[in-house]
User: Fold this.
Amino acid sequence: MTIEVGTKKYIITTVTGSFNQHSAKLQANPWWGNIGVATNFAEQLAAQLGFPNLQLGSQGPYFAFRLTPLSVGWVSWFKQNNMDGRVLHTDREDVFPHQHGPNTAGVFAVATPIP
Assistant:
């Protein structure tokens, strides 16, 4: 999947596994450290990458943007009970730390810049 954000183009793919397994790739993403940029990518892609994460209903890939001692902060396109999609985010340590810890498996988005 190709996406243009601002003046840059990216190929968006996914990796499956835990944050810890793919931490170098995930921390190299353009949205790392910035929930606003992560949200922008998630909104632009919406359901185009499907809903591979099922922890809270149907979720698109996680756009991981932060790591805390207890959890990974991420945003994802979310759809539940055939309602319109929206962005869902966990950006605090107290939001589902037991389900979204750094060793919890999931499908994460990865961006590769196109020169």
